[in-house]
Amino acid sequence: MAEGHKKLGELPATAIAGNDITSSCLYVGSIALMHAGVWAVGAMLLVAAVLFLFRKIYGEVVGALPLNGGAYNVLLNTTNKYNASIAACLTILSYMATAVLSGSTAMYYLGSVFPAVPVLWATVGVLTLFMLLSIAGISESSVVATIIFIAHLAVMALLMVMCAAFVARHGMGQLRLNWELPVPGGRGVLAALFLGFSTAMLGVTGFETSSNYVEEQKPGVFPKTLRNMWVAVSVLNPLMVLCALMVIPLASIPDHQESMLSFMGLNAGGNWLATLISVDAAVVLCGAVLTSYVGVSGLVKRMTLDRILPQALLKENRRGSSPRIIILFFLLCLSVLFITNAKATTLAGVYTISFLTVMAFFAFGNFLLKIKRARLPRPETATVATVSLALLGVLAALYGNMRLNPAYLVFFLQYFVPAMLVVAFMLGRKTILEYLMIWVSGFVESVPGLAVLGRFTISRTIRQLNRQEFVYFTKGEDLSVLNRVMMYVEDNEITKKLRIVTVLKEGESAKPEFLSDLGVLDRAYPDIKVEFIELHGIFGPELVHRLSGEWGIPPNFMFIGSPGDRFPYRLAELGGVRLIT
């Protein structure tokens, strides 16, 4: 990422996410060709059309909520913690599959040059290396990312030029031979297009990455990154598939599916081109592994700060990294690697399901934004038809991948279900502890010493959870709005105290009817103590950060209602304050 407080410009911001999305051409083409044959080019163009719709969706959502966190942040500010946690778990699974698929594919490409490379154990080495680098505090550098991005595009452009030269020398014979082959699996053209489209959606993984560091980008840069990534994937992936059809026989693709581009280079230009592509693939894909470590560290840390995951994960070393988060992610990646035995198609299936579900949540979040945050200013708006069509495309691709191989869904659920059980436990842990207290109390007569110790431990844990205070900044809303605030806090947070703060101009004071409403709320919610605080000044980032320091309440435990068009600050400037009304 950018160093210090320097914001990212268009090229480096595009490069960080672009390395993710453009590296997909190294493995998605072979998968689409095996399922769609010559119709894979059409499938890639359909993917580009769906991605074009998502440009508007992401532009509206992130423009309205310019905060890091992607789908998790969107749902956290439009629904509740549980829904946001589902999106977060899916994103974590996507990061896991990214790391493993990118690392193993990088080793497959190296193996095409150095056959002695053991792909499985070499991938373990790559994951271990980047785990150690992440613990040491080494994250993405925008300069390095830019160099890798430009070099990768240059190598891909060179490959296409050499394929064009191959066709100029040998003619279109190979394309005609491939065209005459039956559709894979004996399917019809429409079925081939559908399955090719479903699997080719893997080629847009990484499109959401830019939304995870939008706060580090200069104003106005984010929509440009979406445009640039869309252009890159819409040009690169279809042309790469077309080049493959003109240079190599379709029958040879299954034997070279993990390193198809290197095989293309060998046919089009010789060993030197194949080696160059393999080295480029190893570099850009290893960069995607680092992206996964950095991305998951930030997301899990945000979830932990929001008290969705155990606080023990927050422990940092002297370099500011969180070793426990990184090591846990590494172990999960290893389990995925060994369960799938580093098979690219299986990894891609798990990756696609998790990523497509995250995209569906983004479209769902866009609908919620239109309904619940209609007053929130945004630089652009996606029409309801656009969002509906995009969501339909993603759901169709999701169905296609599950229909193609139901085993992918089983692999996916093996990780998603346990993750959601942990989240459900953490969100409902106060209720669980209260029931556990009743259960332990039943042993007072039979095992009195153990029962007393258990009750003391549980009681202390509950007190620690309740100790966290929350803040709501009010503009003097009526009782119905304040009641929704109390319901949100009661349903989503564990606390015994809520500070309701109003910021007024000098000489002004709160209206008597507002104070009366607060009294009603205090009586209606006896489990939460409501403290009213009246301040004079201007509400803004400076006040939020000052109160956070004075009260020891992090900004992510402070809430506001949706600001209107006249609000002079970007939400990102408030340091993570949450929208709840």
Topology:
Layout: H1 10-22, H2 28-36, H3 40-64, H4 71-76, H5 81-113, H6 119-135, H7 142-170, H8 173-180, H9 189-200, H10 222-247, H11 260-268, H12 271-305, H13 323-340, H14 344-372, H15 384-404, H16 406-427, H17 429-441, H18 448-466, E1 470-474, H19 479-492, E2 497-504, H20 512-524, E3 529-536, H21 541-551, E4 558-560, E5 578-579
Parallel strand pairs: 1-2, 1-4, 2-3, 4-5
Helix pairs in contact: 1-7, 1-10, 2-3, 2-9, 2-10, 3-9, 3-10, 3-14, 3-15, 5-6, 5-12, 5-13, 5-14, 5-16, 6-12, 6-13, 7-10, 7-11, 7-12, 9-15, 10-11, 11-12, 14-15, 14-16, 15-16, 17-18, 19-20
Structure description:
- The chain contains 21 helices and five strands.
- It has a five-stranded parallel β-sheet, with helices on one face.
- It has helices spanning about 10-20, 30-35, 40-65, 70-75, 80-115, 120-135, 140-170, 175-180, 190-200, 220-245, 260-270, 270-305, 325-340, 345-370, 385-405, 405-425, 430-440, 450-465, 480-490, 510-525, 540-550; strands at about 470-475, 495-505, 530-535, 560, 580.
- The two termini are about 35 Å apart.
- β2, α20 (about 510-525) and β3 (about 530-535) form a beta-alpha-beta unit.
- α14 crosses α16.
- The protein folds into three domains: about 10-425, Amino acid/polyamine transporter I (Up-down Bundle), CATH 1.20.1740.10; about 430-465, no CATH class; about 470-580, Rossmann fold (3-Layer(aba) Sandwich), CATH 3.40.50.
- With about 575 residues, the protein is mainly alpha-helical.
